Amino acid sequence: MSKFKIGFFGAGKMAEGILSAIVEKDSVIMAEKVDARADELVRKYGVVTTDDVKGVAAAAKLIFLAVRPQDVDVVAAEVKDMLTSSQTLVSIVAGKTLAKLRKAFGRKVKLIRVMPNLALRAKAGMCAIAPAANTPARDVAAVRKILAGAGETVVLKEKHLDAVTALSGSGPAYFAYMQEAMVEGGVKLGLERKVAMLLAGQTMFGTAKFLRESAMDLGAFIEGVCTKGGTTAAGMEKLADPAFKRIVASTLAAAAARSKELA
Ligand SMILES: NC(=O)c1ccc[n+]([C@@H]2O[C@H](COP(=O)([O-])OP(=O)(O)OC[C@H]3O[C@@H](n4cnc5c(N)ncnc54)[C@H](OP(=O)(O)O)[C@@H]3O)[C@@H](O)[C@H]2O)c1
Asked: What's the predicted TM-score (pTM) here?
């Protein structure tokens, strides 16, 4: 095996997010077919690229599977016979179960599933890690150490990954949608869009930061902002319609159901 310790099947958005967490980027090899994208990765990060997943399978000890769910079987067919018991495959693919991955990639390779989110790219990601039963703890610790470079990690049983996918995996889109709704509301009240973006974005960021750091109870926090007879209380009277939480719950349920379907 060559000097490459970490490899990637797929070099898209999430692969780049994980890459940002890796300290020794010159020990990374990524499979990328599109020349312009490969050149960009080499220039920005100093990684090595190959146009073929087999090049990664032959060279890396720890490999992230970061292709879209519909591309997994094509990649697996190419590398299955090459992977050995000294290699670890870390799949970030939504929905694909350890059982399905085992079938696709063969019995030898050690398996770990990770559900990350796009906030990795701002080094504030959330990664849930679910190892296969026979994957050694030191491999799980190594993956956790890498991912901790780009945010929070938690080790969970695989049965929770559909819920994780729905909540933190897809969550960035839902929070962005809330921000968009706040921006549109601000614009309707006469603010410039650019100003409304700043106000909504910084408020979302600051609230999240405060709540994480203080670990304050959410109900108590909301109550604290809602001065009796004040402006926030008037706003919350609209938002606290039971339909709002029902919509959020059904949003997560739909995402979790899709995660199950993707298996
Ligand atoms: N996006 C999210 O927020 C998020 C969150 C959690 C988990 N995930 C999971 O992360 C995975 C990747 O998502 P993404 O958003 O990073 O997608 P993406 O940006 O589309 O990246 C996927 C990459 O894989 C490449 N690829 C496909 N087949 C390949 C092959 N045979 N050999 C080499 N490269 C190949 C694609 O190249 P081409 O475009 O040229 O085909 C593309 O660059 C998905 O399975 C998804 O379920 C995503």
From this structure: 0.92
